[in-house]
Backbone:
């Protein structure tokens, strides 16, 4: 940690420039897992990589760690070019998606292994193992072997094995995916607090957008080996760069209605019965209601909008405070505040300037 | 109890009865084992307690006479020691070289398939044939190795390498190691393949260097298969007589004699069937004990995982 401070605050913790990774398959079949990625993570930052399954998140992390050799491009850690250097010299701590615990070692020895490799003295090792075990709630498991653990327990051991170190950067590949909802929430909390405390840059991979938005200082959205958008969770949610980000983030996803050569986008929670939207600068549209779901206090209204563009099926999410009576089959006037509308190119899906919609 | 279930029962065929199938599949093995293992073994035991000779082959009970003859033989004790030494040295070399070769086999080589096939050749060559090749290589006057050694002034006087006590023993070990290393390599490679590859990634991420990865991860994880490879190597070396027989004929002066060749020498060539059978039986308890110990260790190592 000392060395990094000397290196100056200007140096990024991790920087990837033009990363391309092509996996050679059998008979010239190739997979372009990374297709020109430029991304950097600042000192002490929590950067979350978010994307659908198979978009290249793990590949990106493994390339940064030095487990995979990039086909093209450079990786910098702490401002230094690390291409070709082994993980040991890059000083990265990583939780692999498959946990990869040492099957012949006890949980205790598993967590101890990286400390031994760094020649940490014994009493210090013991202290760190205790600390990590307490942090992740696994002190009772220290004497067991991996095959005697549940999936979630293994995952916590893998996390402990990474957290006991003092690396230049933490790389966490879906470290909480095997935990139940409640444990995931508390562990997520602990992780964030731990990272604030030690201030080590962390790159965190997930395909769970709730986790991404909750944990990340910044979120990088990937799709098919390309970076779609990097920004704060707020940016990602409110100002999506394209239709992929707009529909991948948010649940239910953003509604998109085609209008000439544009797509008009609005989030379900902004589509409300017209009487609940301030009169000035609102855009109204009739919604033919098909189905209503009642989910944790909100009403999700499924229906078809007309008038503002092509007839499209959309979803409106009405908070409990909206009490307008609605029933399937009827058509009701709904509205969206004008400043909540987003516009995308209908052909390429990228964000464009707003257009006027009468009404 | 329903109609469908009853009807399903009607259609049970002979091949659905597991008991019948088990016996049907086992039968050839049982016949084969009886003919080739159990019967000769019984005969050996019977002959070990006989006073039969090739001149008078009819069976006459002789008590411990055969064993007494063997135990009184100096060459027997020396070949017993030689057999054990040969086995131990071969096992160590085969396991070490086999492990190295296993890693080579797994590496992402360009001509992986070709390399694999080539590596396996020594194991697939018949023992007698490969022993003959070694004999040609090292053997009597004018062999390539002899000429090279003489050229480098490492060999003086008369006689080939195989005609000298030390070099002859080394040649026997070399032939065994050359032949069995591929087998060990294949066994260890299978063991390596069974370890989830993430474990090696984890070890690299955890900052472990080459030696720590080797002795902290790879060796303990492949210990069970390595033990199996060792047992196989030991078994094959222990009972083999072709290599010694072809390469050195047990010489010079019985210095490379092993128990199987001695048993053959005494029993078949010397004509004392009782002594020969006794000498070959002497291997059995020793060998069984070794195998049992090794397999126990394997099972314990497996249980830990
Ligand atoms: N070793 C490999 N050989 C060939 N193709 C691979 C290899 N590893 C990954 N791929 C391919 O590269 C692409 C990206 O894989 P990657 O594992 O990075 O996805 P991911 O975003 O981590 O997905 P997930 O969320 O399911 O873990 C996928 O199409 C995958 O099939
Ligand atoms: Mg992945």
Residues:
């Amino acid at each position: 940690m000392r060395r990094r401070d000397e290196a100056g605050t200007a140096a990024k913790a991790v920087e990837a420039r033009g990363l391309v990774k092509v996996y050679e398959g059998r008979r010239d079949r190739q997979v372009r897992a990374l297709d020109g990625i430029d991304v950097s993570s600042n000192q002490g930052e929590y950067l979350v990589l978010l994307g659908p399954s198979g978009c290249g998140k793990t590949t990106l992390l493994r390339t940064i760690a030095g487990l995979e050799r990039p086909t093209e491009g450079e990786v910098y850690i702490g401002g230094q070019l690390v291409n070709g250097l082994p993980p040991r010299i890059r000083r990265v701590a990583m939780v692999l998606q498959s946990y990869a615990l040492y099957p012949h070692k006890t949980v205790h020895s598993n967590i101890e292994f990286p400390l031994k490799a760094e020649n940490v003295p014994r009493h210090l090792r013991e202290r760190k193992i205790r600390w990590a075990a307490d942090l992740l709630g696994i002190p009772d498991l220290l004497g067991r072997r991996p095959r005697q653990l549940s999936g979630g327990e293994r995952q916590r051991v893998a996390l402990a094995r990474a957290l006991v170190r003092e690396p230049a950067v933490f790389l966490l590949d879906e470290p909480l995916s095997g935990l139940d909802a409640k444990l995931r929430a508390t562990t997520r909390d602990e992780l964030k607090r731990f990272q604030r405390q030690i201030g080590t840059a962390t790159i965190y991979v997930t395909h769970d957008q709730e986790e991404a938005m909750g944990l990340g200082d910044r979120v990088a959205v990937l799709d098919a080996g390309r970076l779609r958008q990097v920004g704060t969770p707020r940016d990602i949610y409110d100002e999506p760069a394209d239709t992929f980000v707009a529909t991948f983030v948010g649940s239910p996803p953003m509604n998109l209605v085609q209008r000439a050569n544009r797509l008009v986008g609005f989030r379900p929670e902004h589509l409300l019965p017209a009487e609940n939207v301030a009169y000035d600068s609102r855009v109204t549209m009739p919604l033919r209601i098909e189905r209503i779901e009642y989910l944790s206090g909100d009403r999700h209204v499924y229906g078809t909008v007309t008038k503002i563009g092509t007839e499209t099926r959309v979803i409106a999410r009405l908070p409990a405070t909206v009490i307008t009576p609605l029933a399937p089959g009827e058509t009701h006037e709904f509205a969206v505040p004008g400043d909540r509308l987003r516009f995308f190119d209908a052909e390429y899906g990228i964000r464009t300037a707003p257009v006027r919609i009468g009404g | 109890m329903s109609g469908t279930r009853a009807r399903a029962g009607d259609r049970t065929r002979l091949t659905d009865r597991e008991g019948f199938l088990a016996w049907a599949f086992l039968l050839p093995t049982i016949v084969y084992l009886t003919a080739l293992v159990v019967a000769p073994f019984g005969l050996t035991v019977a002959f070990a307690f006989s006073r039969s000779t090739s001149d008078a082959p009819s069976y006459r009970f002789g008590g411990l006479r055969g064993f007494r003859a063997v135990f009184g033989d100096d060459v027997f004790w020396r070949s017993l020691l030689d057999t054990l030494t040969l086995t131990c040295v071969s096992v160590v070399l085969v396991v070490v070289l086999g492990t190295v070769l296993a890693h080579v086999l797994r590496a992402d080589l360009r001509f992986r398939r070709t390399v694999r096939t080539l590596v396996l050749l020594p194991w697939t060559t018949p023992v007698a044939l490969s022993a003959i090749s070694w004999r040609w290589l090292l053997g009597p006057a004018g062999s390539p190795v002899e000429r090279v050694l003489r050229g480098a002034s490492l060999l003086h006087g008369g006689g080939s390498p195989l005609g000298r006590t030390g070099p002859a023993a080394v040649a026997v070990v070399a032939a065994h190691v050359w032949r069995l290393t591929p087998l060990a390599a294949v066994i260890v490679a299978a063991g390596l393949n069974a370890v989830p590859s993430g474990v090696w990634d984890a070890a690299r991420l955890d900052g472990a260097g080459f030696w720590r990865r080797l002795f902290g991860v790879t060796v303990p994880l492949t210990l069970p298969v390595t033990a199996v490879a060792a047992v196989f190597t030991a078994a094959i070396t222990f009972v083999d007589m072709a290599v010694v027989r072809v390469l050195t004929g047990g010489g010079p002066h019985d210095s490379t004699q092993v128990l199987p060749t001695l048993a053959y020498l005494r029993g078949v060539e010397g004509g004392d069937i009782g002594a020969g059978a006794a000498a070959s039986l002497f291997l059995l308890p020793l060998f069984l004990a070794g195998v049992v110990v090794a397999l126990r260790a394997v099972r314990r190592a497996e249980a830990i995982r």
Notes: The first helix of chain B runs from residue 3 to 10.
